[in-house]
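Translate sequence into structure tokens.
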Amino acid sequence: MRIGTLIQVVFLALFATAGTAADPFQESGGLVVMEVESAPLAGSWTKETYRGGHTGSGCYEWRKGNTSTGIDAAGAGILSYPISISTAGRYRIQLRSQPSASTDYNDVWMRVQGATAVEAVRSNGTDVRSLGTAWTKVYNNSANTWSWNSNTVDNDAHFIYAEFAAGASATLELSGRSTQFSIDRIVLYTSAVTTAYATSTDRGESARVAGGGGGGGSANVTISGERKQWHKVTLTLDGPSASESATPNPFLDYRMQVTFSKGALSYNVPGYFAADGNAAESSATSGNKWRAHVSPDVTGTWTYTISFHQGTNVAVNGGGATLAPYHGLTGTFSVAATDKTGRDFRGKGRLAYVGERYLRHQGNNEWFIKAGADAPENFLNNTDIDGTVTQSGTDRRHNWSAHIGDWQSGEPVWKSTKGKGAIGAINYLAGTGCNVFSFLTMNINGDSKDVWPYYDFNIRTRMDCSKLDQWERLFEHGDQRGMFLHFKTQETENETLLDGGAVGTERKLYYRELIARFGHHLGLNWNLGEESADQTTQQRKDMAQYFYDTDPYRHPVVLHTYPGQQEAVYRPLLGSASKLMGASVQINWDEVHNETRQWISESAAAGKVWVVANDEQGSAGDGIPPQAGWAGYGGGGPNRNNLRHQVLWGNLMAGGAGVEAYFGYSHPDSDLSCRDWRSRADWWAMSNHALVFFRTHLPFTEMTSNDPLVGNATSANNGRYCLAKTGATYAVYIPAGQGGSADLNLSGQSGSFTVKWYNPRSGGALQNGSVTSVSGGATRSLGTPPADSASDWVVLVTSAGSPPTNVPPTVSISAPGNGASFTAPANIAAAALATDSDGTVSKVEFLVGGVLQHTENLAPYDFAWNAVPAGTYQLSARATDNNGAATTSAAITVTVVAPSSPPPTPASPSLSGDGSATPTLSGVTQAGAEVHILVNGVEVGSVIAAGNGTWSYTLVGLPPGNHTVTVTAENAGGTSSASPPLAVTVAGSGGGGGNPGSASDSGKSSCGLGGGVAAVLLAMCLVMFGLRRP
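Result follows.
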């Protein structure tokens, strides 16, 4: 821990015993916005909601009134609003209020403390009167309507202004005067802000400066959840108080990242604003809880380190100033072994893309194939979830009442009873043996127009904390029931809604929030969009890259597009051209098999095989219709024999990753209206039979589609299918109506093969047919099935002899190129491509000069080779397959040369505000360099230089007296020497408050300690850490 951080921690601990005031509102850009209900009720003020049109959670109304006059003297029921001013200037003060009368009983008392001047100015500017710190009557002549009229001086309307110095700590107070006078919110603003902007009710409440009490900010960190492998472990930080509508925006203008690490294993996890930390239950919109989740891979002691920055759009753009005392906090927690079994993903581990056609659990190494529900796509439009809406004339909200009986005692709910239907629905689907459900997380302007993560339909940069916490209850239960979560992040109607389709501020924030809140789940993929068509190829690449760069777990990224659009959309994304890992195929029901085969083959040929699933089967009106006899379903659409053959088994026998069932619009319980998954009960049973066969009887990861072996030379969708591990295992699907027979070409194979039959309609054990064994060397008849030869059957043919010889994997270095040159200290993004023709790659090791440097167990195989000094190096990769065979690639040569330019030399900082409590330093250095601020030789913070090289930093909380300030600048070339010392004088004798060295936008409010005490404490810290001799 750096000395500056230690000093901050000591100051916090010492100051905590002194007692603190309420957290002040932080002025930003010359504006302060405060909800009246942010202050505790006092006297005869009451909180009311009956006056429509209020902002926030309500308004305050004065109810007492002098019994004889209806008016109270100043000082009755004082409401206090502390304010921290960083921008010096003259601020106009306005109240949004509503009196019960337009003349009498239309006012409230107000005073301002901590200003250099408070004045009443006639509206035409011709008369100025000093108000000082006395109580002043503020009236509003607009009865029974909300208005910003805020005048003083009877019969001669004067506006009210307050003059503040930079760094001022002020308090605005209200006292009840007229009965039934209601107040909604308060604004203060300079001439740099227009009245229309300041008084817009779309403006969020200003942030409160943490650390002053009342709103948190104590930097307390708690670790909660089951601290076991693969379980959700949650870090909660008591950080800056904020609200969903606050300024600064807690979603954009703060950036919390938490690095969770154990040894070489490390995850850099995005954090998020969690309101009061219990928003699913409380529906809170404000609070001081900030969170990050991790699902640890291994047992033992894990370390966390928090990074916390503040600044405009820092959540998506980086940079900003470090925010004390949160930045740099670190600690440890212990993780025990998992104790979960069965379907629960917490017993199997995270599902990862490993460079194969299938995902693989990283705990027990089990391979994953899926079957389940693609519908309803608006699954999250649930009557029990906060912020759920319905479109005019069409109520598509789901209450899942048909599945309430599937909910079990002790399972998740919120607000005592809510969520039972949706939890029960997940239980039901899992109980059928299925293992996936999908949902849109944003369908603004889409088919249903009723799901989004934002607290308002029209606002794209502010999230709904309680809604997202309630989503999390559903997803967490899905993990525990072994359900894969298919996140569909947009649909075709809104693919250009965010940033015009580009990866800009809105889209980055949307993705970052999804990753931060839900990325810890063990089984999921990020689908870049349903029916993607209108975005450009580069935009799709950028989207995939952002997920790859931001998701610490590298969950699979897939893409869905229209039938007929695959060539234009998928082909430019193959191989190393993008970070896409799979295709979410939409195609007509009778084209699934060949479409799956095509994109598996094409992606493999491009060097990175995709996970290819059939997630929507046309036509749009049919999909998978309800089962026969379902209420309101009169028939129509493809029959179950054809769908089972060409959709379910069509995908799986092509080597596909599985099928999600789409529900067509022409039938009951459709893609938008389904409220009962029992509408397809027979389909779920058939899907489970297919999953059981593959998991139990096939080494499916080692098998490939080879339909010509059963006479289907063109792999016709309506023909027989064959999935083969040549010479070892063959699965043959015989569709209904083809006589229940097939011939298998075993030419070139020797030995005997056993023949068993499986019923894809009803499942069960393997059975004997008319032929129980065949020999290799020619095309052989597999005989006839045990019964019902007119129906579809699956034949399992397995070698009775020794398994074939294992073929070693292939591996090559794909980045950097041979002969590449870098400048020291170099950060080199190395990568390798590895495949195994008859099995799987279990690990890839990177070697420098023949010495092992890094091991990757998952594809993509990347090596962050950092801080490489000058020299010439030989880099190679070694791949090992599932049978232990290893191959080492040819080595490439990498040259790292000494830097050609020295570290930046910072210009001597200039000083403004010398003698104040908050002097500001500024200067110019190299763009992007990190400028370190040292006070009396101790680093107290840092700031990143802007694109033009300028930087500034406000010192907050220095005790009165003389100080010496120096700065250094750091870039890839190193750290400069210190600038010439600059003398800084802090005047005054008290109220320094906060943490020495905090940036101006992150300073802490006064702790009530005098300057002398603060100076003593600083001296104690310097002595404790050996920086000054006693």
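Note: The chain has 13 helices and 58 strands.
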